[in-house]
Amino acid sequence: VCIHLVRSCSSVRSVKSKYVCVPDKPALSFSHQQRFFRTSAVSCGQIVQFKLSDIGEGITEVTVKEWYIKEGDSVSQFDSICEVQSDKASVTITSRYDGVIRKLHYSLDEIAYVGKPLVDIEIDASKGVTSQEDVVETPPMSHEEHTHQEIKGHKTLATPAVRRLAMENNIKLSEVIGTGKDNRILKEDILNYLAKQTGAILPPSPKAEIISPVPKAESVPAGPVDKARKAPVPLARPVVVAGKDKTEPVTGFQKAMVKTMSAALKIPHFGYCDEVDLTQLVQLREEMKPLAQARGVKLSFMPFFIKAASLGLLQYPILNASLDESCQNVTYKASHNIGVAMDTEQGLIVPNVKNVQACSVFEIASELNRLQTLGSAGQLGTNDLTGGTFTLSNIGTIGGTYAKAVILPPEVAIGALGKIQVLPRFNEKGEVFAAQLMSVSWSADHRVIDGATMARFSNLWKSYLENPASMLLDLK
Amino acid sequence: MVLQSSLKNCLQLSCILRTPKAGFRSTTTGDLIIQSISNDVYQNLAVEDWIHDHMNLENRRVLFLWRNSPAVVIGRHQNPWQECNLRLLRQKNIKLARRRSGGGTVYHDLGNINLTFFTNRKKYERMENLKLVVKALKALCPQLDVRVTDRYDILLDGQYKISGTAAKLGRTTAYHHCTLLCNADKSVLSSVLKSPYRGLKSNATPSVPASVKNLFEEDSGLTCEMLLDAIAEEYAAQHQIDHCITLINPADETVLPGINNKTKELQTWEWVYGKTPKFSISTCFNLVYEDSVLDVKVDMEVKHGRIEVCNIDLPEQWLPPALCSELVKSLTGTKLCPNEITTLTTTLLRVCPQDDELHSRWNLLCENMVMLM
Q1: CB contact at 8 A, B213 and B153
Q2: Which residue numbers delimit the BPL/LPL catalytic domain (chain B) (predicted)?
Q3: N or C, fewer C-beta in 10 Å, chain B?
Q4: Which is more confident, B234 or A19?
């Protein structure tokens, strides 16, 4: 009599196909068949229904609020599976098994019942479940079952497979350093422990050696100094980067920057750079700082740079203009709304100071303070962020000297200011003196601005800053 | 200032003030009463996380006492837009935090005390904890009419809520925490806990509003320090330990390794706003432009705090259709965050036709959109 055991992959208990030809001894063949059934069931992935355990306080039903896994994901024992809520209590349900999630019995916001199946997990066959009892449906997980995981009063986490390995090798789990999540002991830890005892050379572990001072629960497990890892391995191990590539969609503000910068690319830029001697301005600012402070305003260099730029724009209004999309018309803007590039958490934002041509240096400083406060609080309004006509970017506060700034449409010019450095320079008498120098890099739209105009504007701006008293003559 | 006097009180009232040693878990083996020296809601919530994740509570219980500077704390599965006035929070610089336990939204300030009872999973028992609090209150003020309801609230005079409860259960540990109103600012409380956002449809856990009262109103001699001390004393008595409060610093990595990461995580946008269950906004507003009033209808679906789907219904030709679809496309995938939307929409103006009229219409529309957040 031939007995066929047919393979059915999709059924709950999948068994290997086996054609058994058994002599005509019914009792023997029957027990033979049973035995085969059992062993073959264990060696394949067996699907187990993981039931919702007792929450306590007599609660029988909960609402599923969040799934941490989806069908097809692999889970390890103690990984979080889902978050359920019952009467102001939020409960994290963790997995009892290592395996693959095959079915979620509830969708979000559905009511789940204690004692009923929550998820189906296909037990990882290679991990070798120790006994049939562990695999088959069990009564709702009670807290007592966790105690068998603990050895001598302190928690030692390890899967049954790892425990068996330790037992077979006469290793006390309490003596092994666990490198898995929550310091659980992994198979590799047992092997390393063994290697340490016997001095064996182990094949290189796939994890990179990262030794961190702080034990982390979630990230790459850090092993404390483990002699086994540093055991004589003559070959140079390939450096395996433990991190993973991370792809994120471009959204929100970044998307807008993509559009703006792509449009800016269409503008034919030309650059013009120079060096400005701020020695006198540095002194002036030192004198003015306490005066401004007394009026409740923090005075930086920017208000001077901005006001000087506005004075320059009065002479060279083409730099404060806008070219329309079809390049048919140039609009000379009456207001000097000078934008100041600000670095925030989100990235580069450019609020502007309105009507600089009508503002004093102090008023500009005050307005800058306001914009900076709002900027760092993430509370700038539409009015502050629109209507700019000319931009200055003080990249020097972070660092750098010369830069190639990108014009922000619909403007036609931008200035990038480098950091102030003390450098040796020669004066008219040929003597060396310490000069406070700042480099400036202008970019302008070559369709409507020519090099000469840019150069003359820059010279004028520079002269105002190198000799601040000269600004007095032209202040309105 | 308040913290200093609290420390002083601890010195006067309790016997010994232990400074925590490194490796917090390894100090004593008995039950423990600890108090945070910080008033930062994120740091204190991180301490709860830390104890829950790292402390062995198999054979010991812990009482954690903490207070926060003004903050609104929402439950794990709640929707901040539904629960509070986010605009007002930003204006008044009141922090918003999402805790890991369930339950509803509360307002914390220094006139409110927080108590967290840590136990192992088996010993999770909220009624017992609240009865302990009531016993302590009655010992302090025998004439107080306070009792625990079956919703785990504590009521004063049978009608005013003075304490709310929430809990978190993990694999092996559990905690139950509750608030206690001593002298909180009730007017700020009621104004921030009122959501101005209309048209929200969500499965998030809703809060149950209740009339509140401060214990201070019953007995003007009561202070937070007195309440904390009374509760600590009762806990010590019931758990047969010394009435000693161990102070902990939630920024100290040597005592609480890994705590700063937990604090950081609690402050991320992804946790505070991004953990909001999927919801939809269906609302309309009026645009007042020059001499006319226009009706605008907005429908949005928000998932993980980001706009998944967006639909804006404008009167025809008020804005060129290309521009409208550009706005909708840009909003899709963006965080439901006023700052993000403002910077996005103002930056987009740079690549729009340079027409003053167009720009002012666009700005008006975008400003109103931002009001929805």
Answers
A1: no
A2: 57-243
A3: N
A4: B234
Interface test with B, best of A144, A146, A386, A445 (most B CBs within 10 A): A386
Nearest C-alpha of chain B: how many angstroms from A217? 9
Distance between terminal CA atoms of chain B?
36
Q: Is B42's Cβ below 8 Å from some Cβ in A?
A: no
H helix intervals, A68-186: 132-135, 144-147, 160-168
- Chain A residues in contact with B100 (beta carbon < 8 A): 90
Answer whether A214 sits within 8 Å of B258, measured CB to CB: yes
Confidence of residue B48 (pLDDT cuts 50, 70, 90): very high
Does residue B72 surpass a pLDDT of 60? yes
Candidate from A90, A325, A385 with C-beta closest to B100: A90
Task: Please give the single-letter amino acid code of residue A451.
Answer: G
Tally A–B CB contacts below 8 A. Answer: 164
Chain A, window 317-356: residues with a beta carbon less than 8 angstroms from a chain B beta carbon:
322, 324-325, 331, 346, 349
pLDDT for A340: 96
Report the alpha-carbon distance of residue A421 to residue A143 in Å, rounded: 68
Q: Would you call B25 an interface residue with chain A, using a CB distance cutoff of 8 Å?
A: no
Residue B168's pLDDT is what? 94
Q: How far is A18 from A29, CA to CA, in rounded Å?
A: 14
ipTM: 0.82
Please report how the helices B259-267 and B41-54 are oriented relative to each other, as an axis angle in degrees rounded to 10: 130
Q: Report the range of poorest mean pLDDT among A429-443, B14-28, B167-181, B226-240.
A: B14-28
pLDDT of res. A234: 57
Kindly list the residues from chain A whose CB atom is less than 8 angstroms away from the CB atom of residue B88: none
- Kindly determine whether residue A215 and residue B349, on different chains, have CB atoms separated by under 8 Å: no
Taking the C-alpha atoms of residue A189 and residue A433, their distance in angstroms, rounded to an integer, is 67
What is the rounded distance in angstroms from the CA atom of residue B214 to the CA atom of residue A149? 47
- The interaxial angle of helices B321-331 and A252-265, nearest 10 deg, is 130
Q: Which domains does chain B have, with CATH numbers?
A: 32-273 (3.30.930.10), 279-372 (3.30.390.50)
Q: Which residue ranges form the domains of chain A, and what is each CATH number? A: 47-123 (2.40.50.100), 160-198 (4.10.320.10), 269-473 (3.30.559.10)
pLDDT digits (tens, 9 = 90+) for A109-129: 899 999 899 999 888 766 544
CB B308 within 8 A of CB B301: yes
Listed in order, strand segments (DSSP E) in A344-388 are: 348-349, 352-353
- Dihedral sign, Cα of residue B135, residue B136, residue B139, residue B142: negative
Is A427 exposed, middle or buried, given 0-12, 13-18 or 19+ CB atoms closer than 10 A? exposed
**Cα–Cα separations (whole angstroms), residue A257 to A254, A350, A378, B291, B344:** 5, 12, 17, 34, 8
- Cβ partners under 8 Å of residue A320, min gap 6: A313, A332, A333, A336, A389, A390, A413
From the list A66, A214, A408, the residue facing B350 with the nearest CB is A408
Low-confidence ranges of chain A (pLDDT < 70): 1-44, 125-157, 168, 170, 174-175, 177, 181-183, 192-241
Please state, as a whole number, how many other Cβ atoms lie within 10 Å of the Cβ of residue A319. 27
Q: What residue type is assigned to position B179 of the chain?
A: T
B190 touches chain A (CB under 8 A): no
Interface membership of A81 toward B (CB under 8 Å): no
Which chain B residue's Cα is nearest to A326? Answer: B353
- The H or E element spanning position A210 is none
Query: Which residues in chain A have Cβ-Cβ distances shorter than 8 Å to B121?
Result: 56, 143
Q: What is the pLDDT of residues A402-412, one digit of tens each?
A: 989 999 999 99
Choose the closest CB to A386 out of B205, B353, B359: B359
pTM surpassing 0.95? no
> How distant is the Cα of A82 from the closest Cα of chain B, in angstroms?
11
